[in-house]
């Protein structure tokens, strides 16, 4: 089951994820679900924190109007904003016969194949999770597992503003730059096309057939 949402406030999406996870654990949701969306600008902090990776004063972030939200995913600080495709799979891993490492590698594969379909050759980095174009990070992964059910997920930079990434050490990594599909191919990318390609690649990599739905159909 897949819900494609043009844009959703981060706090609302986080609440929705948590409710879907609870429903999946309780058996009120009898299938896995995937949310595909974009967020308005927000910084999120993972379980390892991340405010120490700010390159600007916290007062600057407040003046910018971009909220900072602490969440339960792995990793440290990252940025979400328009032009970035965010995918939140709510998946019971044992049903997919996957361990966490297998699951993360498949999320990376989804981004690698999506980027390739959009004209950009990306790859894994043995030292850092996510997908990369040389030493430039194109997509990030941060997951959480609650009683065997995954949430949070991946973020692929299709055509976002990269400026806010420059205010932090993204994912706690110093000396790296973030990039996007549009920057690497030196031209704009349709978010509609990117969303369609990514959804198709989720089906290919996970060996599933997604049933498109809307928010009203979710528990």
Question: Which descriptors apply to this entry?
Answer:
219 residues, 28% strand, 12 strands, three-stranded mixed sheet, BirA Bifunctional Protein, domain 2, alpha/beta, nine-stranded mixed sheet
Can you characterise this structure?
- With 219 residues, this protein is an alpha/beta fold.
- α3 (100-117) packs across α5 (191-206).
- The chain has a single domain, classed as BirA Bifunctional Protein, domain 2, CATH 3.30.930.10.
- The longest helix is centred in the middle third of the chain and has 18 residues, at 100-117.
- It has helices spanning 10-26, 58-64, 100-117, 181-185, 191-206, and strands at 2-4, 33-37, 42-45, 68-70, 77-80, 84-92, 123-125, 128-133, 136-146, 149-157, 177-178, 212-213.
- The chain is built from 5 helices and 12 strands.
- The strands form 2 sheets. Strands 1, 2, 6, 7, 8, 9, 10, 11 and 12 form a 9-stranded mixed sheet that branches. The protein has a 3-stranded mixed sheet with strand order 4-3-5, with no helix packed on it.
- 40% of the residues are buried.
């Amino acid at each position: 089951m897949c819900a494609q949402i043009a844009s959703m406030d981060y706090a609302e999406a986080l609440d929705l994820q948590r409710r879907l996870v609870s429903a999946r654990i309780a058996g009120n949701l009898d299938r896995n679900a995937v949310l595909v969306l974009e967020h308005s600008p927000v910084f999120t902090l993972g379980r390892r924190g991340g405010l120490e990776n700010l390159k600007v004063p916290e007062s600057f972030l407040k003046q910018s109007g971009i909220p900072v939200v602490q969440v339960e995913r792995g990793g440290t600080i990252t940025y979400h904003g328009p032009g970035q495709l965010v995918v939140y799979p709510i998946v019971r891993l044992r049903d997919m016969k996957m361990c966490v490492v297998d699951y993360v590698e498949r999320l990376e594969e989804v981004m690698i194949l999506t980027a390739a379909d959009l004209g950009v050759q990306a790859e894994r980095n043995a030292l850092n999770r996510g997908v990369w174009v040389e030493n430039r990070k194109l997509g990030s992964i941060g997951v959480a597992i609650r009683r065997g059910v995954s949430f949070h997920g991946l973020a692929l930079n299709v055509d976002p503003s990269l400026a806010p990434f420059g205010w932090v050490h993204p994912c706690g990594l110093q000396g790296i730059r973030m990039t996007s599909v549009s920057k690497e191919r030196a031209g704009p990318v349709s978010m509609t096309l990117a969303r369609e390609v990514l959804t198709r690649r989720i089906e290919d990599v996970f060996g599933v057939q997604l049933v498109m739905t809307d928010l009203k159909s979710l528990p």
